[in-house]
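From the methods appendix. Each design record in this collection lists the tokenized structure first, followed by the designed amino acid sequence. Records were kept in a plain field format so they could be parsed without special tools. The example shown here is representative of the layout used throughout.

RECORD:
FOLD TOKENS (206 positions):
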């Protein structure tokens, strides 16, 4: 009888331990699943956040620079007056009215280069109206075309580009339209100057 009671008590203890072990196992599994869910949610959220950030950075880098335009102020490469500006437009139109944008910019570049060079006058207007031995430096001043041209929007855009620093002149200080230049003048260019390049209807020298 005592032996039966001992076995009964032992069975109850074993059953109790089995129940505890099973409950513990399921609790561990549930905790593990919960951790995986939380981790997955965290990783997913982190991934979305990174993609969003990278997307913003990508847009900023590839489509546009994020700049506060209100604090930007463009400035000319020269200090010029309204008279200088109007004269620059007229000389470029009269010298390169039939040229493309680059051809017009090049003529404006030469004017700017001369203003910056010590051997020429210090203002745009003085450069344009400069004379050597009573001869004007630019043919539109001599023949009057300078005063009668109608300035186009393309010329305005080209002059603005040059004044804001767009320079493709390689330092040129002179230009000549050989097709319209007399032989004596063309010979002087060839003898005394260094030819840099030809663009459109003009040859450029320094």
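DESIGN:
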């Amino acid at each position: 009888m005592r032996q039966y009671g001992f076995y009964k008590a032992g069975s109850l203890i074993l059953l109790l331990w089995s129940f505890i072990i099973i409950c513990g196992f399921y609790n561990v599994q549930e905790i593990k699943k919960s951790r995986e869910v939380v981790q997955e949610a965290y990783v997913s959220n982190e991934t979305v956040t990174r993609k969003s950030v990278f997307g913003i950075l990508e847009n900023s880098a590839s489509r546009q620079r994020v700049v506060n335009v209100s604090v930007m102020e463009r400035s000319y490469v020269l200090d010029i007056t309204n008279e200088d500006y109007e004269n620059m437009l007229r000389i470029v139109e009269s010298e390169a009215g039939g040229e493309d944008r680059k051809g017009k910019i090049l003529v404006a570049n030469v004017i700017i280069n001369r203003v910056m060079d010590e051997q020429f006058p210090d203002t745009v207007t003085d450069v344009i109206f400069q004379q050597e031995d009573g001869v004007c430096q630019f043919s539109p001043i001599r023949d009057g075309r300078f005063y009668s041209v109608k300035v186009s929007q393309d010329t305005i855009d080209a002059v603005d580009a040059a004044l804001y620093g767009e320079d493709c002149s390689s330092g040129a200080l002179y230009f000549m339209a050989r097709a319209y230049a007399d032989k004596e003048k063309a010979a002087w260019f060839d003898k005394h100057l260094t030819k840099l390049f030809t663009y459109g209807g003009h040859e450029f020298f320094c």
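APPENDIX NOTE: Residues 6 and 12 are 10 Å apart (CA to CA).
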